[in-house]
Structure formats: C-alpha cells, structure tokens
Amino acid sequence: MNARNIVLIGFMGTGKSTVAHELAQRFGWKRVDLDASIEEAEKATIPQLFADKGEPYFRRAETEALRRELEGVEGRVVATGGGAVLAEENRAIMTANGLVVALTADEETIVRRVKDDPNRPLLQGDLRERVRTLLGQRKHAYDFAHVRIDTSDKTVERIADEIAAHLAR
Ligand SMILES: Nc1ncnc2c1ncn2[C@@H]1O[C@H](COP(=O)(O)OP(=O)(O)O)[C@@H](O)[C@H]1O
Ligand SMILES: O=C(O)C1=C[C@@H](OP(=O)(O)O)[C@@H](O)[C@H](O)C1
Ligand SMILES: [Mg+2]
C-alpha cells in the first residue's frame, strides 16, 4: 500500500465518518474524525462552536486540527468535515499527506441520511432547501480528490472494498 494516510472528503451525509471507521478496522489503521478532534481540542461541541464563536473561528480550528492529525504521521484514516475542503490551505495539507478520497451521494440519499441528526449547524431550517443550496455552492469543491466514489445505494462494506481496490493499485 503506497498511501501514508487516507483522507475522506465529501458533502455532509456522504458517509465519511462511517466509512473511516470501517477502513481503519480493516487496515488496522487509526481512525481520526476531524470534528471529534476539534471538539476535544476546543472542549466544545460543533454546534456550540458555531453558536458561541462563529463559523470563521470553527474553520480556523479545523485547519489546526488537519495539521495536527495529518502532518508527519502515517497509518491514519481521517474523516474530514464537509466544509474542510473550502480553504486552499486545507486542500494542500490533505493532498500532501495522503490519498484523498471523495465520497459523493445524490440529494435524496443525503437528506435521508442527515435528517435525524440535529448536530449539523449548517443544515438548520428547511433541510431539503439547505442541502440543495449548499450542494450547489459546493458542486466542484471535492473535484481535487485523487479518487471519487459514489456511495448512494452502496453498503459501507462495498464502499470500503472500492477504496481498498484503489489503494492496491
Ligand atoms: N453507505 C451507507 N449506507 C447507509 N447509511 C449510511 C451509509 N454511510 C453512512 N450512512 C449513515 O448516514 C449517516 C451519516 O453518515 P456519516 O458517516 O456521519 O456522514 P458524514 O461524516 O459524511 O457526514 C449515519 O447515520 C450513517 O450511519
Ligand atoms: O459541511 C460542513 O461545512 C460541515 C460538516 C460537518 O461534518 P460532516 O460532513 O461530517 O457532517 C461539520 O464539520 C460542520 O457541521 C460543518
Ligand atoms: Mg462526519
């Protein structure tokens, strides 16, 4: 296996956190969820950070977490948050330190997967409308990935199989 680390990117609800868990188990690698890393470092939940400190503060904490979790290490599967790709600085950290895998899903699938979880500050209000608007704004945000995998109608195991096949190449 060539890649030092695997970095999962993609819109909210594409399954980054879930697939990272499966991949880390398979490879015996360490799973890192960037949101969890931020929550631990900041001693606050993601919704609290957005509400109390604002999104720009969260984004700075996100960049710090990416550096902390990816630079100079190997054997990690890092699940990023859906907006971690928006800063060029973050994209550079990801591509320099691992195989970047973009997970995608159609709008229906995303809405279905995120609808019972109230912990995504950017999806407050009319859920379908918010997902549609953000998906439009982020249409090309994940294009820099080395690999792109559609997760709609696929099991977590199948998605992990596909990523593992790319690693073996
Ligand atoms: N391939 C899949 N098939 C069915 N449900 C999935 C799949 N991947 C993720 N889920 C479910 O969708 C929800 C969101 O997944 P999560 O891993 O938190 O996404 P992300 O980290 O990309 O926002 C969770 O409830 C998870 O169990
Ligand atoms: O898309 C985004 O900007 C965000 C995605 C979330 O992570 P998930 O993609 O794991 O839901 C989390 O980082 C935060 O709520 C912001
Ligand atoms: Mg996640």
From TrEMBL:
Its main location: cytoplasm. Binds 1 Mg(2+) ion per subunit. This is Shikimate kinase. InterPro entries: P-loop_NTPase, Shikimate/glucono_kinase, Shikimate_kinase/TSH1, Shikimate_kinase_CS. Its EC number is 2.7.1.71. Pfam families: SKI. Mg(2+) binds at S17. Keywords: Amino-acid biosynthesis, Aromatic amino acid biosynthesis, ATP-binding, Cytoplasm, Kinase, Magnesium, Metal-binding, Nucleotide-binding, Transferase. One of its GO terms (cellular component) is cytosol. It is found in: Cytoplasm. It comes from the Bacteria. Belongs to the shikimate kinase family. GO terms for molecular function: ATP binding; magnesium ion binding; shikimate kinase activity. Monomer. Transmembrane segments: none annotated. The gene is aroK. The keyword Cytoplasm applies.
